[in-house]
Design brief:
Largest sheet: 8 strands, mixed
Radius of gyration: 29 Å
Shape: globular
Structural class: alpha+beta
Length: 778
């Protein structure tokens, strides 16, 4: 399995920069800082997907859906398709390495210049637009946007785009093709950062994830560039909050899918000199809100000025002409399927209005193939309840019913569904949404958001566009009187907005976080870099502006650290993707007692520790990154990461990094004895350093002692960084039966390409363990 990210067990305890999140802001920060020679650790909550691994059918897509409601979370916390169901606003975003770039239409467009005249923007940007223009230029050099190359070989005029031309003409509005971050030029070649890409095949499945190496997501440019220059990326690491202590930032995160939650294990903590929060408008705001609850001073504006970027979703259903707007999914090679094209290719540009806030961007779209099985029933039902037919006549009505019947009997690639146009509009809402924590969960509040007059105007324009095609207009199903006109957005912005005044802003013009609520003091080394800092709606797709701001701010930050940033794109001889063999992972909890008065005898240390209430426990994840090497190498070495609880050492959980585990190695002193070894460094919250060494002694004594041997760990703690330092304590840890049952449930393969490899890896580990036990005891 090829990956940009590294195994979580290899993470270090400290970095000069930790970046939280890998959307446009985080990926650009990782790339640019690494290019400047700064060591970077990037923590991403989601999984890493590479082309070929995105869902292709409804079952797989359903498994990747997660929903945050007002009282619970549904689905995996690392599901690719993440929904926040607010009281008046639903947000859809991506959760994976590369953030929402995995599931967006990758439209690269600049806002109308008047957007930046708003006093909500910091003066440093309003009065120096050149710095932002340079940011746009640098972003385009990496993202490689270009328009759909209509009427060139392999790229015919698309039906949905033709429909847009008809609608634009009828509306007397400007039509044009958009720049999109999709590759149409070269096939099966290495791109500018050493990643192989292919040409777009017009499948239309951009927003469930491009399986064809054509979409210029962040895993195709900025992220591999960061890896090329030394950045370390770790996925499935959900940051909870940050804290400032002793001139360093403490970053607390939960490593997902290791089984630690089965033991109620605490978050892990690593430190940094600088932190860049880039978890998106919702994620960055949530992290800072939770950090504020833990004691971090920030502006009272945190969570305010949230905007959905004026997003409106609508459909022109059952038009008189084909649209071919349903992605092809697994059927992209079928000869009878007509090309869909990239998700969005064109725009009806209505931004040049006298009143900026009444301007809007209208784009066509496609519905991804993996969800196509549910479309026919959904659209047929919606058209009856909330649809508005834009043309009349008995013959027209009859034709519409025939097309509906065709869809019902032949599927969504035929009839009424195949004649449906998808619309996405962006305009200017009032930006008065807010976010806060309720019961430690992020909540979005925006009373009566859908009742703003601008949305009625958008609704009218979409009816016009549909009327030109002879269809039935269906608004966003949530936008109706019964639901109080709730809205949906795929472009959440704000929450940590930039500005010149701490009373109304959370960050300054570089995204540096204000350190209190009364003056413009700043937190040293703490930045936000994503859509959350944008202080108002942009009126069009925001990714390019987020990228431009990140490029601008990275340059300023790097210069502030007296570093030089080289933008040259030299040929890459070696792929940044690393091939990982199949390995095995499990998580183990052991509990016991230790005495810091006893330096020689383990049993005395245990007894005295129990008597004096000096407990010691750990929850460790042990990973072999290559099961073949693990089983054949006599040292049977694996990596460890986790947490230790020992009140006598620290009143806080102690994070373990750089841990080493050895399974069944020969004891040099006793021929018939084998050892399981545990060695790890402990760094406490208070700043002290200790070294831990423990071993299980596997030998056949009189009686049946196999369970006792394999579940008893003799532990020694040293003062300092290794076992050459002074011994300060001895004790014993044991595995309880209930914890052993949980441990078995955490055993899994890592890096498998399929179920067969997964089963094989776990089986090999089991055979090694069972074989060694059999050899010793039987």
């Amino acid at each position: 399995m090829k990956r940009l990210s590294k195994p979580i067990t290899t993470i270090k305890s400290h970095y000069p920069f930790i970046i939280i999140g890998s959307g446009y802001g985080g990926s650009i920060a990782a790339s640019r800082l690494s290019r400047a020679g700064i060591q970077v650790c990037l923590l991403e909550k989601g999984k890493e997907f590479q082309p070929g691994e995105y869902p292709e059918d409804l079952d797989d897509a359903t498994k990747e859906m997660q929903m945050n409601t007002n009282n619970k979370h549904i689905g995996s916390k690392t599901g690719l398709y993440e929904f926040y169901m607010g009281k008046e606003m639903t947000v859809f975003k991506g959760c994976a390495l590369g953030g929402t770039s995995n599931v967006n239409a990758n439209v690269s467009i600049e806002p109308e210049p008047r957007v930046f005249e708003d006093v909500k923007w910091p003066e440093a940007i309003r009065n120096n637009m050149q710095s932002l223009k340079e940011g746009y230029k640098k972003a385009k050099e990496m993202l490689k946007p270009s328009p759909y190359p209509e009427n060139t070989p392999g790229y015919p005029e698309l039906a949905k785009t033709s429909g847009m031309k008809v609608s634009a003409a009828a509306m007397n509005e400007e039509f044009r093709y958009l720049d999109i971050n999709v590759n149409f030029e070269y096939d099966e070649q290495l791109n500018h950062v050493g990643v192989e890409q292919k040409k777009c095949n017009n499948c239309g499945d951009c927003v469930t994830g491009c399986n064809h190496y054509a979409k210029n997501t962040l895993i195709m440019n900025y992220l591999p560039d960061a890896v090329n220059h030394g950045a370390e990326i770790f996925c499935e690491a959900g940051v909870q909050y940050i804290e400032r202590k002793d001139n360093k930032w403490l970053v607390y995160f939960d490593p997902y899918h290791l089984g630690r939650e089965k033991f109620d294990a605490p978050p892990l903590c690593i430190t940094a000199d600088n932190v860049i929060i880039s978890a998106g408008a919702l994620g960055s705001t949530e992290i800072l809100l939770r950090s504020r609850e833990k004691g971090l001073n920030v502006s009272s504006a945190l969570g305010k000025h949230f905007t959905g970027n004026g997003d409106v979703l609508g459909f022109g259903y059952n038009n008189n002409v084909k649209m071919n707007g349903i992605g092809l999914g697994k059927h992209y090679d079928d000869e009878d399927k007509e090309p869909v094209g990239p998700c969005i290719t064109s725009i009806i540009d209505m931004r040049k209005r006298e009143n900026l806030d009444e301007g809007m961007t209208l784009e066509e779209g496609s519905i991804p193939g993996p969800i196509s099985p549910i479309l026919t029933t959904a659209f047929t039902t919606l058209s009856k309840f909330i649809g508005k037919d834009t043309d009349e006549g008995w013959l027209d009505w009859l034709d519409e019913r025939k097309r509906e019947a065709t869809s019902i009997f032949k599927g969504p690639y035929h009839g009424s569904l195949n004649n449906t146009q998808v619309y996405l509009v962006m305009t200017h809402d009032d930006g008065n949404g807010s976010m806060q924590l309720e019961n430690d969960r992020l909540e979005i509040n925006w009373p009566d958001v859908g009742k703003q007059k601008i949305f009625q105007k958008v609704n009218g324009k979409l009816q016009e566009a549909t009327k030109a095609l002879g269809g039935t207009y269906i608004p966003n199903p949530q936008w109706n009187k019964m639901t109080n006109y709730d809205m949906v957005t795929v472009h959440p912005l704000g929450g940590c907005v930039m500005g010149d005044n701490v009373a109304t802003s959370v960050t300054n013009h570089v995204g540096q976080v204000y350190s209190n609520t009364t003056d413009n003091g700043l937190h040293e080394g703490l930045y936000v870099m994503d859509g959350s800092i944008i202080p108002r709606p942009l009126g069009t797709n925001p990714l390019l502006t987020i990228s431009a701001l990140a490029e601008r701010n990275c340059k300023i930050i790097i210069e502030g650290h007296q570093k030089t940033l080289n933008y040259d794109l030299n040929p890459i001889a070696q792929s940044p993707l690393k091939e990982y063999e199949v390995g095995v992972s499990f998580t183990e909890t052991m509990r016991g007692f230790i005495s810091f008065n006893e330096k020689t005898d383990f049993k005395k240390g245990y007894d005295e520790g129990e008597k004096n209430n000096s407990p010691f426990d750990f929850t460790l994840t042990i990973q072999s990154q290559d099961i073949e090497a693990f089983t054949t190498d006599s040292s049977h070495r694996a990596d460890m990461i986790g947490t230790v609880n020992c009140p006598k050492l620290s009143k806080y959980p102690i994070t373990v990094t750089s841990g080493v585990f050895n399974l069944f190695i020969k004891d040099e002193n006793e021929v018939k004895t084998k050892l399981m070894k545990y060695a790890m460094q402990l760094r406490t919250y208070e700043g002290a350093s200790y070294f831990f060494y423990g071993y299980k002694e596997i030998k056949d004594d009189k009686g049946f002692d196999m369970w006792s041997d394999t579940t008893t760990l003799f532990i020694t703690v040293y003062e300092g960084n290794d076992d050459k330092s002074s011994v300060i304590g001895k004790g014993i840890l044991k595995i309880e039966v209930a914890d052993f049952v949980k441990q078995l449930q955490t055993m899994k393969a890592i890096h498998p390409d399929n179920n067969k490899e997964s089963i094989s890896a776990v089986t090999k580990f089991g055979k090694l363990f069972a074989g060694e036990v059999w050899e010793t005891y039987f």
